[in-house]
Every structure is written in C-alpha cells, then in structure tokens.
From TrEMBL:
Stretches assigned to the Pectinesterase inhibitor domain: 83-228
Signal keyword on record: yes
Record SMART domains: PMEI
A family per Pfam: PMEI
Biased composition (Pro residues): 50-71
Protein name, per record: Pectinesterase inhibitor domain-containing protein
Domain of life the protein comes from: Eukaryota
Positions of the UniProt region annotated as Disordered: 37-81
Residues of the signal peptide: 1-23
The UniProt record lists the keyword Signal: yes
Matches recorded under InterPro entries: Pectinesterase_inhib_dom (IPR006501), PME_Inhibitor (IPR051955)
Example GO molecular function: enzyme inhibitor activity
Amino acid sequence: MELNKFILLLLFSSPLLSFVAEAICVPRNVSNHEATGPALSFPSSAPIQAPLPPTDPTPSPQASSPSPPVSPTKSKSILPPPSNNYALTKICGLTDHPAECIVAIAPLLTGRTDPISVLKMGMKALHKSFEEATAVAAKLNKDPSSSAVVKDSLDTCLESFDSGMSDLNDALIAISSHDIGKLSTMLSATITYPDTCEEAFAEQPGLDSPMKEMDRKLTTLASINLAISASLYWT
C-alpha cells in the first residue's frame, strides 16, 4: 500500500520538475548584449569641426616709427657771458635806453667791459647804423619814382649821415688822447644829424619821411654813447 503511494507521487512530480527546470534554464546562445539590454550614452552634441590649419599671414611691413621732431636750431644769444653781463648792464643802466644799449653793444664786445671799451663798441654800432641809413637813402635817391622834393630831402640826409660818421672818427681820436671835452662835443653832434634829416622832410607839407625808423634808431644810439661818455673820468 505504501509502495503504491510512492509510485503515484513520483509520477505526478516528474512533469513539475521538468517545467521548473525549463523555466530557470538560461539559453547558452544569448549574447551578453541581449542579456544586459541597450547601453546608455550621453546626448551627442553638434559635431565639432576640426580647426583649419593655421595659415602664415603675409607679414605686413612694419610701420616706420615717426622720426623725432627736429629741434629748432637755437639762435645765438646776443647777450655776453654772465661774467660780463653784469658790467654791461651796469654801464647801460646809466643811459635812458638800457635795453637798447645791451642789444646794440653786447654782440660787439670782445671780452672787456670797462666803460671805455663799452663806449667804443657803442660808437661802432652807431657808425654801422649810419652806414646802413646812407645805403637806404642813396637807393631811394636813385629810384625814378622818387619825386624831386623827396630827393632834395634825401640829399640832406646823406650829408648829415656822412657828417655823423666823420664826427665818430674824431670822437675815437679824442678817446685815444683822453680829450674828454672834444669827445663830448663830437658825440653831442651825432645826435643832431638824424634830426636834421627828419626836419628836411618835415619842411615839406604832406611829405612823409621814409627814413623815420632809421633816424629814430640813430638818435637812440647817439644818446646812449653820450650818456656813457659822461660817466668817464680820466686822471
């Protein structure tokens, strides 16, 4: 009886075991990809273009740097060195035209600035100005467009300028001989000659003097020389 129950139980359990075995059996031909499912990936970004190979740019010519500005040439100073400037300034301070005195005499100084040397240079400057005035008056006198009245006045100027140069030569001799009286007389006369020139034009109604500026310069220089000579003292 017991044996029959065991046989019946065995018969009923065999199909169940077979079903269970088939349910848990993994087929050998399934690949790993099918077993694990599709692989995960990040969203692809837009395709990145490979950079173009660098091209050698044509070297542009370098802009030349601007040349440094040329410094203006310094004009030569008309003033003497500082060591002489004080002495000249002091002497010119005795005149009524100290600035004009320095400008006229400084370029002519040779190094000495004692009163006699300064006076000689002042006389030299006046003599040169008489020469310049003579050249201007002579040119105007030869100008065909100059009227007869103008030429008559210019003749007076030419005579006056010539007398002025002659008196300066006599004044130079007076310095050498220490003749202070004659020196004063000659230098005083040089002041009158530019005035004589201007009076020749003033005597003609409505006639303007073309020598006005030059005569003013001559008068100033003559006044400077006379003032310097007044400070001289000879024993």
